[in-house]
Every structure is written in structure tokens, then in C-alpha cells.
Amino acid sequence: MRGLAKGLAYTLKNMTKEKVTYNYPDQPLEMPDRFRGIQKFYPEKCIVCNQCVAICPTDCISLTGKAHPDPNKKGKIIETYDINFEICILCDLCTEVCPTEAIIMTNNFELAEFSRDELFKNLEWLDENDTNLRKENKV
Amino acid sequence: MIRTEEMLLNVGPQHPSTHGVFRIVLKIDGEIIKEATPVIGYLHRGTEKIAENLQYTQIIPYTDRMDYLAAMTNNYILCHAVETMMAMEIPERADYLRVIVMELGRIASHLVWFGTYLLDIGAMSPFLYAFREREAIINLLTEISGGRLTFNYMRVGGVKWDAPDGWIDKVREFVPYMREQLAGYHDLVTGNEIFMARIKGVGAYSKEDALSYSLSGANLRCTGVKWDLRKNEPYSIYDRFNFDVPVFHEGDALARYNCRMAEIEEALKIVEQAVEQFPEEGPFMAKVPRIIKPPAGETYVRIESPRGEIGCYIASKGKKEPYRLKFRRPSFYNLQILPKLLEGENISNLIAILGGIDIVLGEVDG
């Protein structure tokens, strides 16, 4: 019986302690800065080097580029940029290799959709995803 | 005249007490288990096969998903294997960061086991307390790595991020807090007469059985074998810390419980010392070539994960992808003793025995 009484004393002691749960989703959940959420993409920064596509472990990124509209300038600009969030594991490797920080992580993580097709996010959607940006992206 | 017959009972694959997708086919005679056949593979993703087509850095996120309760150890085993092949020197600061996060992961993993095991055998509240403390650890690990479970934190040659400002102090403050909570768990559970009566002597096996089934971790140490790779074959910087290897002799579920609870205490000791010795500054990443190409050859390394001995075998042909990669996943080996333990047991002991082994199905199925 002593063990049971001790256990009960512990339970009673915890009743007066501060609550550890919070009222999500009414109260938004703050994540630390390094949190790896849905990517934000800057089309103007992208140099179409294809490194994010090469490093992606699940092959969820696909992109195409086109020649620079200004004929005096070399290089390419981005035409389409898609991430398939059905298979993206938010591993952060694409942002790690990006030389111009054209793709960075945000702290947004809510990605529920009604159909699987909607998880296929294109350049415009990724460009507009510009809230809660991660401040520190390169080590 | 009462007619009796044997019955086949299917437990799982979707059953909360199997801690994942795991199925056991039981042949029962009344309440007594005659034969138990585990069926695994529901979570098989072919990690080792996938890895053959990936660069070493790309494999790290996949290791997160094997033992998802202690992903840091899995990150480490792969990086450790590649570093061993390339004979790479790891900066001291990275080593300390790795040890701190791995030991925090070990505590978190044991807390999940503690909570869910008690939940399995019918006690609700320890689960809530255990998850409260685990959440504190997960918050610490999220702050340093950016992920709650799938950390993807280690890299070949070091770690991805340095500790953020004030993080080490937070870890320092966490250690006494966790000790206090652990004492509370002992008050709540360890001395409880109902709990003792429930698991004492349940699922006992001998030292010889444990060795012949090549069990490892707490499943081995509960039978009196003092074998912990952190002590016996020190890797990383574990030889710098002063800690004990808890050993119990009964080989039953209670001994495994005591062993894991004592391991939390030892892990706290290691974290405490690592935080004290933590170098003020220094690099956290070694000089690593952009494309990692270990020399042709083979290597096998093993370390102590919360569940036992986790090993990684790499066969390299000097390319940027491994030719063959194999993980020795401790949960898979530990699970093999289950049919033997269940034979002749009452069906009400099934969950108490299965839970005591502490398996993670992501690791069993690979």
C-alpha cells in the first residue's frame, strides 16, 4: 500500500503544476528559427544550377530554365519550379546546397489538402509562401 | 462433455500495443499460447536498397526513419561508418555536440518506452508525465537541428549546425530537472505494488538464451551480461566520461524496466559531463571534399543505440554512392526471441512481454 500512496502523492503534487498543453490551432504554434517547414522560393535569385534537384533524396523537385531574355546577359533564368509535397521529406538538403539562397525554409508546416494533386506546388505558390521565413539559412 | 479446440488468433497489424505495424499469429489453447508466429515487413521500405543509388549525404535523412525514436544515433552510425572509411578526424566541438544530442535522444527514447509500456499494461498517467519530459527534450533537439523526430542533423565530418546561443545552458538546466522528474517516476511507478506484481518474473530468459539469440542493449544487460559498446569499444569521445553500465540479473520484464530507468540516469551523467567539458569554440565541421567518395573497400562499425547494438556495413567501390550498405538493426534481432518467450504463456502476458522488448517497427522492417 505504501507504493500506491507514494504514487498518489506524486499525482496530487502535479495537479498544481503549470499546464503543459496549449490550445492549438486556436493559438498558433511557434517554432524555433531552425525549424524546417515548407520552402519559399525566390525566382529572381535562382541561377538554374540544378543542384537542389541533384541532391534531393526523394526526387521531388523538378525545374526547367530558359535563356535570359536580355541577349547581352549570359546564363539562364527559371521557367518552372515544382515541388511534390507528397514525397518531400523537408530534409533541408536543397537549401543547404543552393548557392544563392534562392530556396529557403520557412517555419510553416500546415500542409493538409483535400486532394493529392493539390500537394504539387508550383513556382507561384512557392514564391507566395513568404511568411515566417527562416532567418539563418547558411551555416 | 465440453469440446475444446485450438484457435488461431490474429493480433495486429493495426494494434496500439504492437507499437507500429506488427502482426503476431497466435495458436491458443484456451488462454495459453501454444505457438506464436511474428509477421513483419509491413513497414519495409527497402532503405538499404534505396541507399545504393544515393550519395552518402542523401542517405542521412533515410536513417532518421529507421529508429525514429532515436534518430540521432542512426544519423551517427552512417556518418561514423563513412568517416571510418575515409579515416577522417572530427573536430572536438562536433564530437561533443554529437554526444549530447545522442544521449538526449537516448533519454527521449527510453521515456517513450517507459510511457507506452506502462500504458500497455494499463497505467495511463505515467505516459502523460513521460511525454511531458520528452517534449522538453524534443524542443531542445528541434532548436538545434530543425526537426522534431527526423533530425537530419549529422553530416559526414561533423554536424550541420552549431549549437544556437544559450542552447548549452538550456541543456545544463535540463539535467537537474530531469533528475527530479525521474525520482518522481520512481515514486509513481517503481514502488507500486500492482506494477511489481504484474511484471515481476514475466518473460524471463537466461543469459545463454540472450547470447544465443544475439540480443543486445537492455535486453542483454537485464540477464547479467555487462556489455555496452560505449564502455567496451569506446567510439567518438565516450572514453572521456565517467558513467556506469547498469546490469541486472533476473532477465525478466522488471529487470529490463530497472535497466532502462538506470540507463536514463547514466545518460544524464554523460550529458552533464559533456556540457561541462564543452569546448568554448572551434569548428563543428571537418574539411570534407564536396563530393564524398570513400576509398574502395569495406567497413563495419557498431555503436550502442538505445535499443542495442546498431551496426553499419558499407562496401564501397570508390564511387559517390555505396556499392552495398547494410544496417544491423537491433530491434530486428531483439524481436527474434519473442516466439520462444510467448510459448506456454498466458495470453494476458503477451503485451507485457512484447512491450518489454522495446521494438521500433521502422527499425525492424528497415
From TrEMBL, chain A:
PROSITE patterns: 4FE4S_FER_1 (PS00198), 4FE4S_FER_2 (PS51379)
GO MF, any single term: NADH dehydrogenase activity
Protein keywords: 4Fe-4S, Iron, Iron-sulfur, Metal-binding, Translocase
GO BP annotations, alphabetical order: aerobic respiration
Residues in coiled coil: none
InterPro entries, alphabetized: 4Fe4S_Fe-S-bd (IPR017896), 4Fe4S_Fe_S_CS (IPR017900), NADH_quinone_OxRdtase_chainI (IPR010226)
Cofactor(s) this protein cannot do without: [4Fe-4S] cluster
Domain 4Fe-4S ferredoxin-type: 37-66, 79-108
Keyword Metal-binding: yes
A single GO cellular-component term on record: membrane
Sequence intervals crossing the membrane: none
Family recorded in the similarity comment: Belongs to the complex I 23 kDa subunit family.
Full protein name: NADH dehydrogenase
Protein's organism: Guptibacillus hwajinpoensis
UniProtKB/TrEMBL annotation, chain B:
Broad class of enzyme this protein falls into: translocase
Gene Ontology, cellular component aspect: plasma membrane
The entry's keywords: Cell membrane, Membrane, NAD, Oxidoreductase, Quinone, Translocase, Transport
One Pfam family here: Complex1_49kDa
Gene3D superfamilies cross-referenced by the UniProt entry: Cytochrome-c3 Hydrogenase, chain B (1.10.645.10)
Quaternary structure annotation from Swiss-Prot or TrEMBL: NDH-1 is composed of 14 different subunits. Subunits NuoB, C, D, E, F, and G constitute the peripheral sector of the complex.
Free-text function comment from the UniProt entry: NDH-1 shuttles electrons from NADH, via FMN and iron-sulfur (Fe-S) centers, to quinones in the respiratory chain. The immediate electron acceptor for the enzyme in this species is believed to be a menaquinone. Couples the redox reaction to proton translocation (for every two electrons transferred, four hydrogen ions are translocated across the cytoplasmic membrane), and thus conserves the redox energy in a proton gradient.
Name of this protein: NADH-quinone oxidoreductase subunit D
Species whose genome carries this gene: Guptibacillus hwajinpoensis
Encoding gene, per UniProt annotation: nuoD
